[in-house]
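User: Okay, second chain of the day. Same drill as before: sequence in, structure tokens out.
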Amino acid sequence: MKFSNASSDPNGTTIEWQYGGSNCSGRFFSQQNVAILEFILKSSLVTVTYRIMDENSVAICIVEVDEKAVPSIQYGNMQRINNLDTYVTQ
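Assistant: Same drill. Structure tokens below.
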């Protein structure tokens, strides 16, 4: 992944990068704590939306449409694990 550009205005921060030789773009909206990233690939378009819920959790939605216009959606939440020692087998 090659990062190429970023700019900020009252409507959010715009970013551009290259992924697998394809130009991609995204925006971060600080007041809503939302980032929308678009991967425009050779055989599909992938849109990833992150919403920061609080300091320990993020909601995520991934929508992909392939060259045959078949959509797929994945969504869920990510939570910070506060105490990793709890999950270590001794």
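The radius of gyration is 16 Å.

User: Thanks, on to the next one.
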